[in-house]
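User: Hi! I'm a student and our assignment asks us to look at how structure tokens line up with a sequence. Could you show me two examples?

Assistant: Happy to help. In each example below, the sequence comes first and the structure tokens follow. Example one:
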Amino acid sequence: MPRHIVCLTFDFDAQSGFISRGLTTPTPLSRGEFGIVGAARILDLLKAHGIRSTWFVPGFTIETYPAVCEALVKAGHEIGHHSWTHTAPALQTREQEEEDMVRANEAIRRLTGSKARGYRSPAWDLSANTIDLLLAQGFEYDSSLMGADYRPYRARRGDVVELGKPLGFGEETSLVEMPISWTMDDHPHFEFMRLPNSVMPGLQSPRTVLEGWRDEFLYMKQSVDWGVLTYTMHPYVIGRGYRMLHFEQLVDRLVHEGAVFMTMEEAARESLPHIVKRTNDAAAF
């Protein structure tokens, strides 16, 4: 029987993403603080539909807003690892990345009673060490890579990349990769950000964006018998009123279309019989 899974995931950064970029004046910090307002709205929507979701929460957020994070756990949502400082691993030494990973996992353990099973990298930019560190820390899945859309796969380590040569595929690991995409992320579509050397325009219509998100699910339904589609959202982004209106409509449509809502941990475990080896081009055919 066809089965089409949806993972609603929320990167609960609060102010951490602004702080890690050096944006520490009152206005950008207040943008992150709005995530507390957005989180309450999202929790109400999920409760109304009986949907459990996954929240990737930096240690910063857990220790800054403990009562809100406790509400997430009480509501039955999965708490995933999203670093402590929201610094991209590619910008850290191995020692810095490991220290940050351990510190954040301890914050999650204090909050939930156990360490996280899933990881999502800040800025979706893994370092050459991240996979090794995740395996050493006992993670079951990662959700930071974009090598597929509806079919989880095994994360690799040790790819050999040299300009002018074909890619040398590395070793497939036991870590399940739950693929994501910038197109299925609210932040680049909606957030206006003026940075020192660039401007991220954002501010698109949620009607247009979320129609595209709906169509992505419809294509999954028509193209595969079993699949997982992951949506990535940020409470301070999707939590704005007119975006919530369209998000609610999207959830209603997904329910109508027969979507099976799961936490990422649940979906990663269900995916195991569906994973195929993909270290060469024959895996796609």
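Example two works the same way, sequence first and then tokens:
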Amino acid sequence: MARAATPLLKIINDVAPHQLDAPTPCAEYDVRRLVNHLLFWGPSLEGAGRKETVPPPAASEAELDLTGGDWATALTAQVERVSAAWAGPDAWAGSTHMGGPTELPAALVGGMIVGELVVHTWDLARAIGAAPSWDDELLDYVHGEVVKTADQGRQMGVYGPEVAVPATAPTLDRILGIVGRDPGWSR
């Protein structure tokens, strides 16, 4: 989890105020809405690592704006808490919840969160003109996880329609294609 989060922690502080309204490769979100998404769901993802059910706020994600004030410090702290909650092997064992009553295998939830961190870091980076990088071992892991959850992710509306990417493309590009991102996206 920490290896997936490290590039995000660097990019958070590179977002300039004028970039909050910039589009991202995730069609549903500009930078502000993507930051809001990460802040909104962060406590639930953190709770999942501690085997605690932490429901999202009562207001919907669209109704609640968490990007006021020093959002960069708040998001940095939230990402660090998520990483810490998933740091030990107990977090990955057994089952857990992602904010709701349904129990899921903890390893599945952890894999989904690692994928979420990688993809949304890439989204933010592309929006502001940065280039995050992860090690090959982590990207191979994320690729395996998104392949396992692709159909479910599309049914849930979490992944978009798959974007065709050559099998010989870099692993990150193949991950992005599976979850519905165009690896060649630019502003």
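Here is something you could point out in your write-up. The chain has one domain: 2-17+24-178.
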